[in-house]
């Protein structure tokens, strides 16, 4: 027994040693390192959840919704949680695929991060936000997921607001679209280091982008305690989200519809056209009443995650890039619609407003003959008639002579350049500053522009002058391009006479956007102020009170006398009755609503002519300016002018509806809405 | 012995509370520690399972109390009985335990929480034969090794030592088939402890330790362990190796205990416990609940109460007058000490993660019965080894 007792003492000592070891280690873990583990525990247990605010609606000038919210059941997946599972969340996704009836590979594709080499479907947003994998989920499936959280860890189903477009494709480009916010955007935004939230979308284009901050509102923040499954146990603190402002625009949904319909008809008539645009401006305020562009698309493709096919199609050349608004980003030669600028320049440069002008069939400059369209020859006419009949040779002559006075090929140190400068005064050649992203500046060629262009392209031009364009398939085109390169290399810095001549009638290197042309006409027939057009009219709080009215900035006053402006307006007022648009307006009750306008037919190298009609009404006291451009549309009088006529008929209620009955005017007497609409709490009318 | 018999002849009431009755002679410190741990264990089981069901938050705690009551009944029965009948029936008990271990492997066995070690007995209760194997093995080995060698009465017979190893091997082999590495290690420790206590030569002890180390190395290098079992050991050395699996468990256990700091967050107020960040927190990881909610003070109290049981047990063993009793008591101490070390140690990052319950604290019927029986045997030994104060 002695040995046994001895060994039992050893056992007793070992037990004591064990207890000492455990106590010492507990001291180390709980007392020495305790506070560190408290921090870690808090981090594992608490989550900060961003609660996105309800995004404000976008309304038209009468309070009709252009973009509104609708609720839908959305199932989202927390990728971080799935990745922490031993099988990478495979089992969960497989179950989810069964419940949602979505193929497993598709689910997996949707939750991977977009990046180089990973194209849609993929998740472009922050990796810490739950990724929506299904929208419009039926409530039974959602309930199944919520009730069996142990089977679906990291999967949630909740009601989310989705953008809804009650007017379909109308105004798609100017409304813009939403996309999930990226992590870097999220961090830049409010300094909220929340690690997951509901789907957080940000405006990527159009009004959604310009007014994103106001529409978005302020996200709420919930600090919650979660369990191991991510289920919320308690809410520690909560700041409620503040809903975004409602954006009231000056768009009139009815007029927008009329413009869209008119463009559709024009596109049907001209199947080869690769683009068209229509703009209606409020002359008195400079606000945009309607703006449309072709080709267009259905903005609903963005809702709930765009598919790879749709995304590719929207960006492809084949579809004509429907995301791009031709009204603000399309640059086209304006043709004769530009003559308002040239005529203003002539008068400002000292030519007589009431003088006589020669309108020969052709005007010869440096041995080259520039004919009138259709070889029209009118003899001695007034400037009035030159505008009504759109006599090019009158403007050729002035353009050429102005060019000569500036020194011709060897310019004086200080050149006057009346026509290019007047064009710039009308707002051409720079962005209008409209409240939309992606606007193009257009181009007005001047001597300085030519010199700058030459300096930046000389090396390439001279190289091409030597080697030509062997990669071009069409031999005659390649030869032409080579000749052009040679010419540019040798005397590319020279602003040639033909350029001045072309500029005078809005050809050559002159490029404008339909919106630029519309605001130039609005300045001409209005109060002479060139404004930066606005779509946004006011931001209203969700409770219906006015937050902020959006002003329309006046850039400056046209350097054109009121007498000249009135003269030109009166001349253009006869275009639909006696001028180039007489055919297009045959049968139109001009005695009821007098229309003014100017046709434009711009030649485009290698393509059909660009068809323009810039118009205003009522002609005696203009309230509205309407511009329609149809690319490859042929004569302005044959495509754009009829399109504008349809728009006027709709606005003034002059035509007959599809049912043969007279239509109600969209804007009685052409008067736009002048008072902000009253909106109710839910942000609708 | 004659004294005991005389007492036994008295009326039931006199036997219970009369002078020199069981009530006055038993080791109250031992029983007190067991009861205190049972109370603490019940509270911890309650705290860790109250979030399971919002309708009946005390369901698991109630089941635990029922287990404890059954365990205390067993305790009372065994503590007052003449424990030496256990020596007589040890082979029968061993055979029954083996049968249970075999049944587990047949279709009668059930899997709960990844361990295929249960036999359902109906009424929502299940029996875990491998828990029963622990006390039975103690009795069986003590019986074999109590018989002294003919040459030296302080040493066991060599043949019996070999037989012990064989008997352990059979039971451990069956348990490894479930598989349950933790229980296998407990059985190996019990066997090693009893053999050493029984008085084998020191050189054999050294040789045995070396052999065990070599066997361990062989098992390791030959890949006889399942990958997850290997992971548990590597995770101990470097928790970052497998942060999702085993590393997650040991990390979360450490976070829960550490965040309890000195005084704990208060019973029912442990955020990690409520959030169930630690797995199996009412059974194998119950100590994390103590660590978080009761703090350093509380967890040291739990360790201290276990220490009281172990040291009283060791004292009882030393007081024994016969080899069998001493070996049984020593074996029980070694068994419970090893489980305490492994269970508490794994939650504080000094032992690998193995499925071993914390004696008297963890939820689990069979383990509770086995532990209660074990302390009852200690108590019985105590009652019969002390000279009576007449």
Automatic annotation (TrEMBL), chain A:
Keywords: Cell inner membrane, Cell membrane, Cell shape, Cell wall biogenesis/degradation, Hydrolase, Membrane, Peptidoglycan synthesis, Protease, Transmembrane, Transmembrane helix
Localization of this protein: Cell membrane; Membrane
Signal peptide: none
Chief location bin: membrane
Matching InterPro entries: Beta-lactam/transpept, Beta-lactam/transpept-like, PBP_dimer, PBP_dimer_sf, PCN-bd_Tpept, Penicillin-binding_protein_2
Domain of life: Bacteria
Ranges for domain Penicillin-binding protein transpeptidase: 278-648
Entry's transmembrane regions: 7-27
Topology with respect to the bilayer: Single-pass membrane protein
One Pfam family in the UniProt entry: Transpeptidase
Region feature Disordered, mapped onto this chain: 659-685
Domain Penicillin-binding protein dimerisation: 51-235
Keyword Membrane: yes
Family classification: Belongs to the transpeptidase family.
Protein name as it appears in the record: Penicillin-binding protein 2
Originating species: Microbispora triticiradicis
Name of the coding gene: mrdA
From TrEMBL, chain B:
Enzyme kind, highest EC tier: transferase
EC number, as in UniProt: 2.4.99.28
Keyword presence, Cell division: no
Catalytic activity reported: [GlcNAc-(1->4)-Mur2Ac(oyl-L-Ala-gamma-D-Glu-L-Lys-D-Ala-D-Ala)](n)-di-trans,octa-cis-undecaprenyl diphosphate + beta-D-GlcNAc-(1->4)-Mur2Ac(oyl-L-Ala-gamma-D-Glu-L-Lys-D-Ala-D-Ala)-di-trans,octa-cis-undecaprenyl diphosphate = [GlcNAc-(1->4)-Mur2Ac(oyl-L-Ala-gamma-D-Glu-L-Lys-D-Ala-D-Ala)](n+1)-di-trans,octa-cis-undecaprenyl diphosphate + di-trans,octa-cis-undecaprenyl diphosphate + H(+)
Gene Ontology molecular function: lipid-linked peptidoglycan transporter activity; peptidoglycan glycosyltransferase activity
Pathway: Cell wall biogenesis; peptidoglycan biosynthesis
Keywords: Cell shape, Membrane, Transmembrane, Transmembrane helix
PANTHER family: CELL CYCLE PROTEIN
NCBIfam families cross-referenced by the UniProt entry: rodA_shape
Protein name: peptidoglycan glycosyltransferase
Lineage per the UniProt record: Bacteria, Bacillati, Actinomycetota, Actinomycetes, Streptosporangiales
């Amino acid at each position: 027994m002695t040995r046994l007792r001895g060994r039992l003492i050893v056992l007793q000592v070992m037990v004591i040693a064990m207890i000492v070891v455990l106590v010492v280690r507990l001291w180390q873990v709980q007392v020495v390192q305790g506070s560190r583990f408290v921090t870690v525990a808090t981090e594992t247990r608490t989550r900060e959840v961003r609660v996105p605010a309800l995004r404000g609606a976008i309304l038209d000038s009468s309070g009709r919704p252009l973009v509104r919210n609708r609720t839908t059941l959305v199932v989202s997946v927390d990728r971080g949680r799935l990745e922490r599972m031993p099988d990478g969340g495979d089992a969960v996704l497989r179950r989810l695929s069964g419940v949602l009836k979505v193929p497993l590979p598709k689910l997996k594709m949707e939750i991977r991060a977009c990046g180089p080499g990973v194209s849609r479907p993929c998740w472009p947003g922050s990796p810490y936000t739950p990724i929506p994998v299904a929208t419009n989920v039926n409530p039974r499936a959602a309930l199944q997921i919520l009730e069996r959280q142990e089977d679906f860890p990291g999967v949630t189903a909740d009601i989310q607001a989705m953008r809804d477009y009650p007017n379909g494709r109308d105004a798609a480009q100017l409304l813009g679209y939403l996309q999930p916010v990226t992590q870097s955007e999220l961090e830049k935004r409010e300094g909220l280091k929340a690690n997951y939230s509901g789907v957080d979308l940000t405006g990527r284009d159009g009004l959604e982008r310009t007014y994103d901050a106001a529409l978005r509102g302020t996200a709420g923040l919930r600090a919650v305690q979660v369990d191991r499954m991510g289920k919320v146990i308690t809410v520690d603190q909560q700041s409620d989200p503040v809903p975004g402002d409602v954006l009231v625009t000056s768009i009139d949904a009815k007029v927008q519809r009329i413009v869209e319909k008119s463009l559709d008809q024009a596109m049907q008539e001209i199947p080869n056209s690769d683009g068209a645009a229509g703009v209606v401006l409020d002359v008195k305020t400079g606000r945009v009443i309607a703006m449309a562009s072709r080709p267009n698309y259905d903005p609903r493709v963005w809702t709930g995650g765009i598919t790879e096919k749709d995304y590719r199609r929207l960006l492809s050349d084949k579809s004509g890039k429907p995301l791009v608004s031709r009204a603000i980003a399309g640059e086209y030669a304006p043709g004769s619609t530009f003559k308002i600028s040239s005529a203003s320049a002539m008068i400002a440069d000292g030519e007589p407003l009431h003088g006589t002008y020669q309108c020969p069939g052709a005007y010869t400059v440096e041995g080259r003959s520039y004919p009138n369209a259709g070889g029209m020859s009118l003899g001695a006419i007034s400037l009035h008639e030159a505008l009504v009949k759109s006599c090019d040779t009158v403007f050729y002559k002035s353009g050429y002579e102005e060019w000569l006075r500036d020194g011709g090929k060897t310019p004086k140190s200080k050149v006057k350049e009346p026509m290019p400068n007047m064009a710039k005064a009308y707002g051409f050649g720079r962005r209008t500053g409209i409240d939309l992203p992606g606007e193009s500046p257009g181009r007005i060629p001047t001597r300085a522009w030519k010199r700058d262009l030459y300096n930046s392209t000389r090396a390439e031009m001279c190289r091409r002058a030597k080697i030509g364009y062997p990669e071009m398939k069409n031999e005659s085109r390649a030869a032409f391009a080579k000749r052009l390169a040679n010419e540019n290399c040798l005397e590319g810095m020279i602003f040639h006479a033909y350029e001045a001549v072309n500029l005078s009638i809005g050809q050559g290197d002159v490029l404008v956007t339909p919106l630029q042309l519309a605001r130039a006409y609005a300045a001409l027939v209005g109060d002479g102020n060139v404004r930066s057009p606005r779509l946004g009219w006011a931001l209203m709080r969700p409770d219906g009170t006015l937050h902020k009215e959006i002003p329309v900035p006046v850039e400056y006053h046209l350097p054109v006398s009121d007498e000249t402006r009135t003269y030109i307006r009166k001349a253009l007022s006869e275009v639909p009755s006696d001028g180039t648009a007489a055919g297009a307006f045959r049968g139109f009750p001009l005695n009821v609503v007098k229309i003014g306008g100017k046709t434009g037919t711009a030649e485009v190298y290698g393509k059909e002519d660009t068809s323009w009609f810039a118009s205003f009404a009522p002609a005696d006291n203009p309230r509205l300016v309407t511009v329609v451009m149809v690319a490859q549309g042929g004569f302005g009088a044959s495509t754009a002018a009829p399109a504008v006529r349809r728009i006027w008929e709709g606005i003034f209620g002059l035509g007959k509806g599809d049912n043969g009955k007279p239509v109600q005017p969209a804007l009685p007497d052409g008067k736009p809405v002048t008072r902000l609409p009253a909106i109710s709490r839910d942000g609708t009318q | 012995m004659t004294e005991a018999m005389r007492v036994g002849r008295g009326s039931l009431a006199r036997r219970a509370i009369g002078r020199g009755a069981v009530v006055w002679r038993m080791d109250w410190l031992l029983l007190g520690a067991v009861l205190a741990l049972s109370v603490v264990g019940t509270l911890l089981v309650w705290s860790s399972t109250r979030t399971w069901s919002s309708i009946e938050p005390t369901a698991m705690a109630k089941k635990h109390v029922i287990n404890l009551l059954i365990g205390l009944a067993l305790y009372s029965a065994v503590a007052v009985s003449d424990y030496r009948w256990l020596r007589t029936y040890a082979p029968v008990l061993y055979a029954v335990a083996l049968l249970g271990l075999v049944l587990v492997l047949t279709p009668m066995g059930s899997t709960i929480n990844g361990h295929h070690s249960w036999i359902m007995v109906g009424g929502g209760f299940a029996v875990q034969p491998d828990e029963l194997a622990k006390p039975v093995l103690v009795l069986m080995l003590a019986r074999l090794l109590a018989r002294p060698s003919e040459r030296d009465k302080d040493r066991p017979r060599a043949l019996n030592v070999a037989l012990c190893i064989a008997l352990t091997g059979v039971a451990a082999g069956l348990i490894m088939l479930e598989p349950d590495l933790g229980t296998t290690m407990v059985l190996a420790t019990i066997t090693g402890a009893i053999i050493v206590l029984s008085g084998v030569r020191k050189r054999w002890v050294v040789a045995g330790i070396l052999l065990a180390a070599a066997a361990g190395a062989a098992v390791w290098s030959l890949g006889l362990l399942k990958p997850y079992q290997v992971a548990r050991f590597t995770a101990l050395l470097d928790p970052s190796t497998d942060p999702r699996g085993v590393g997650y468990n040991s990390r979360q256990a450490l976070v829960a205990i550490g965040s309890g700091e000195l005084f704990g967050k208060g019973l029912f107020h442990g955020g990690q416990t409520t959030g169930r960040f630690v797995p199996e927190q009412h059974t194998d990881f119950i100590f994390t609940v103590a660590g978080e909610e009761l703090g350093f003070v509380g967890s040291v109290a739990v360790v201290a109460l276990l220490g009281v049981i172990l040291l009283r047990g060791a004292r009882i063993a030393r007081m024994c007058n016969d080899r069998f009793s001493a070996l049984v008591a020593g074996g029980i101490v070694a068994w419970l000490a090893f489980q305490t070390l492994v269970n508490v140690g794994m939650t504080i990052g000094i032992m690998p993660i193995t499925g071993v319950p914390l004696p008297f604290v963890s939820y689990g019927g069979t383990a509770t019965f086995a532990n209660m029986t074990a302390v009852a045997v200690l108590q019985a030994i105590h009652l019969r080894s002390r000279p009576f104060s007449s």
